[in-house]
Amino acid sequence: PFSELVSPRVLSYWIQEGIFDDFREGETGWRKISVYDYVWLKIIIELRAFGLSIEQIKIVRESAINHPIY
């Protein structure tokens, strides 16, 4: 589970800052993430460990979305 990777507080902050999307499952409030979301979460964690700021991660995210590698 992603809760083992990052705290709900940090995840909420990343959602608020726009570097991770919030997918809620119905009225329960549970987050449902895809394999893509899980990989992106791991990438965010690694980028933060390398010292990238939230603003820099936003640039990485936009680049990945606008120029996907298939």
Name the features.
mainly alpha, 70 residues, two-stranded antiparallel sheet
Description of the molecule:
With 70 residues, the chain is mainly alpha-helical. Helix content is 54%, strand content 6%. The chain contains three helices and two strands; from the N terminus they run H-E-E-H-H. The protein has helices at 8-17, 35-49, 54-66; strands spanning 24-25, 30-31. Strands 1-2 form a two-stranded antiparallel sheet. The longest helix has 15 residues, at 35-49. The mean pLDDT is 86.
Topology:
Blueprint: H1 8-17, E1 24-25, E2 30-31, H2 35-49, H3 54-66
Antiparallel strand pairs: 1-2
Q: Radius of gyration from the CA trace?
A: 12 Å
Number of strands: 2
Structural class: mainly alpha
Q: How far apart, in Å, are the first and last alpha carbons? A: 26 Å
Please count the helical segments: 3
**Biggest sheet, spatial arrangement of strands:** 1-2
The arrangement of helices and strands along the chain is HEEHH
Which spans have pLDDT < 50 for at least 5 consecutive residues?
Answer: none
Task: Report the principal-axis shape.
Answer: globular
Largest sheet: 2 strands, antiparallel
Helix content: 40-55%
**Proportion of beta-strand residues:** 5-15%
Mean pLDDT: 86
